[in-house]
Design goal:
15 helices; binds pyridoxal-5'-phosphate; alpha/beta
Length: 482
């Protein structure tokens, strides 16, 4: 039988079947996707289907060939990516939006939750009360939107509307050498160029050095460049370092430069009372980003940008009037959810069509509350500290960077090893192949380190202990064999 008309309903039954397969996946007992690559590629790929197989068979194929060959990322022992496996509430909220509100626009309950969730997050993470936000697809675009606001502001002070006229002068963005590479890409996309990013030296803990920043700004004070932004990290991707925000913010204010804080990973860390003081100076920010698809456990595709005054986003990113949009709405006598687009989020960033991501964030917060997140964040920070403690106590391990948040950078050491970087790279390869504990690596001051980042809601203290044990056992074994 051919199926040339798409199924448009029957969700209860189809979800029951899919739900069972997804739950099976979450037992994490299947082999890695690369173990039987040929069989699923054959089953899923092949020639363009002339005729359809129908939705029921499609779901069956997904259960058999697609889902079991998914990613290791959601696994509790996987600590390599900061994006993590989504928790159930977020998955179900995203699914609900797919069905009931495909767009964030319109006066719907979904649209309402965009603003509710942005404000809940702002309050939870101690942002200035007046800050307003907009969602986008993740930290990359969130940084782009923030730097777009900064660029607009810097040029407006020169009497130039850069959104209209384009870049009229060379620009500079000041960021630590540990900043995320999406800062450079945002500079490129915004027409400033990657080389506009001036990297400022870090101290030995990977934190931007305020003295070096000041010196650079003094040197640049009389050049022809427009200083667009100073960027600080709360939680670098490598080590979780938090820059000295107050000092940096004060310097940015002194030189009258936009102060952006990249908290894609680490902003939620403010909930840990033991390190809250490191966020002192957050209130000086002109823009802040955070990625709910990192520590909050949202499905991938959700970042948020906050600014003090959302009208600057409108000036930077408004797409301009379009008859097919504005013409369909009314300002008077609103009675239908289709009478208005609601808050014009589509004019505060780079997407017109976008899902109501706020519904997902709302669901996550509503499910476990601020206290639930506080406990998760403390739990993860504890895991990084536990790894550091165990490493300090073990003669074959060295802590290369003490944890600030939930990342611990450590390595295996031995007098007998010729090249510790090679040895640790091999240990890491072996861990990836064993597929129980999957950290990443990074390089700190020339040392290749094992880098677990604990963010997954499924990860427990036991996983942290097992990771340390596995690194020791693997290192010992590799040394034996050489
Ligand atoms: C992850 C990350 C980004 C990029 O975010 P995506 O959501 O992956 O696009 C930017 N900055 C920091 C500090 C990050 O950790």
């Amino acid at each position: 039988m051919y199926h040339e008309r798409a199924e448009c309903g029957n969700l209860a039954k189809l979800l029951e079947q899919l739900g069972a397969d997804l739950e099976q996946y979450q037992r994490f007992e299947h082999p890695d996707a690369m173990c039987n690559e040929d069989s699923w590629k054959t089953a899923l790929g092949g020639a363009l289907p002339e005729h359809g197989i129908g939705c029921a068979q499609l779901i069956a194929d997904m259960g058999q060939y697609l889902i079991p060959n998914g990613s290791q990322i959601p696994k509790p022992g996987c600590t390599s990516f900061i994006t993590t496996g989504a928790t159930s509430a977020g998955v179900l909220a995203a699914l609900s939006a797919n069905v009931a509100a495909p767009q964030r626009v319109g006066l719907t309950a979904f649209n309402y939750l965009e603003e509710v969730s942005l404000q809940w997050m702002a309050e939870m993470f101690g942002l200035p009360a007046a800050m307003k936000g907009v969602y986008s697809s993740g930290g990359s675009v969130a940084n782009l939107v923030a730097l777009g606001a900064a660029r607009q502001w810097a040029f407006e002070r020169l009497g130039i509307n850069v959104a209209e006229e384009g870049i009229q002068k060379p620009c500079r963005v000041y960021a630590s050498s540990a900043c995320h590479r999406t800062i450079h890409r945002a500079a490129a996309v915004l027409g400033m160029g990657r080389s506009a990013v001036v990297e400022i030296a870090n101290d030995e803990n990977g934190r931007l050095c305020p003295k070096a920043l000041r010196q650079q700004l003094q040197v640049d004070a009389n050049n022809a460049c427009v200083a667009v932004a100073v960027v600080a990290n709360v939680g670098t991707t490598d080590t979780g370092a938090i820059d000295p925000l107050r000092e940096i913010g004060n310097i940015a204010a002194e030189f009258n430069i936009w102060f952006h804080i990249d908290g894609a990973y680490g902003l939620p860390g403010i909930l840990d009372p033991r390190i809250k003081h490191l966020y002192d100076g957050l209130l000086l920010a002109d823009s802040v980003i955070v990625d709910p698809h990192k520590w909050l456990g949202a499905p991938v595709g959700i970042g948020a940008t906050y600014v003090r005054d959302r009208s600057i986003l409108n000036r930077a990113f408004s797409q301009g009037a379009a008859d097919y949009l504005e013409g369909s709405f009314t300002d008077n006598n609103i009675q239908s959810s289709m009478d208005s687009m609601g808050i014009p989020y589509h004019d505060f960033g780079v997407e017109l069509s976008a899902p109501p991501r706020g519904t997902v964030v709302w669901a996550l917060i509503r499910e476990i509350g601020k206290t639930g997140f506080q406990q998760r964040i403390c739990r993860h920070n504890d895991m990084a500290r536990l790894v550091a403690d165990l490493a300090h106590k073990h003669p074959s391990l060295e802590v290369v960077q003490e944890p600030t948040l939930s990342i611990c950078c450590f390595r295996y050491v031995s007098q007998r090893a010729q090249n510790l970087n090679d040895l640790n790279r091999k240990i890491h390869r072996q861990l990836v192949q064993n597929a129980h504990n999957i950290p990443s690596t990074t390089i700190i001051n020339g040392k290749l380190v094992i880098r677990p980042c604990f963010v997954g809601a499924r990860t427990t203290e036991q996983h942290a202990r097992e990771l340390v044990d596995e690194v020791i056992a693997t290192g010992d074994k590799l040394l034996e064999n050489c």
